[in-house]
């Protein structure tokens, strides 16, 4: 029903030569990637055009962020249309680092989601609670309000293009991972929310990734949860062996 997906978020890491060798290693080992898993990488924007020629159809490319505007006087920004013009299929929006370090609001994330869809780029919309939210027992309400804000203006056809990614902030880059139960209950609640706003068949076909300290050792158990459709991988996507092991764990 839903294909598994493993996405590598490189963040602001790797110089060009290192980035090229990582892509080359992934390409050299692409026969190890199960056909049942969609694989994509999100390198820094400056590398995307160079990588477009280096990646086969088995490895899709994604932006890490884009502007909510189409074009114009927005120095330093990259638009979703620019990504599309390079045949970039996906773009991450609303990553917790964008929300917390760059002050992105739910409203801005919704506008970026819309900008991607208008340009024909599939948004990977991230959401997740802070540690304080979880400690206070507010994780479901925080997550639901973030997801609602991002998707409520979308049409059914637009929602079908959206990938969601649950990334509890306390698990990102910390080595602490959500348990399978914690991931599954949030993913199930978000799927139910999508069903309520759209319909069950759209909810059933929406890919919901888990992200936050996914490693080769914990990937299989997380990905085996009913509503976890793969992962958004930060640190472990910077090492070809680890990323390949995680991709295989999604089979
Ligand atoms: P991490 O990052 O795997 O290094 O925890 C995940 C992410 O931020 O997408």
What do these coordinates show?
By secondary structure, the chain is α/β, with parallel strands linked by helices. The protein has 12 helices and 8 strands. Helix 7 packs parallel to helix 9. It binds 2-phosphoglycolic acid.
How would you summarize this macromolecular structure in one to three sentences?
This protein is about 45% helix and about 15% strand.
Helix percentage range: 40-55%
Ends distance = 14 Å
The CATH architecture comes to: Alpha-Beta Barrel
What's the number of domains?
Answer: 1
- What structural class do the secondary elements suggest? alpha/beta
Percentage of residues in DSSP E strands: 15-25%
Q: Order of strands side by side in the largest beta sheet?
A: 1-2-3-4-5-6-7-8
Distinct ligands, ions and cofactors found in the model? 2-phosphoglycolic acid
Tell me, rounded to a whole number, the average pLDDT.
97
Number of helices: 12
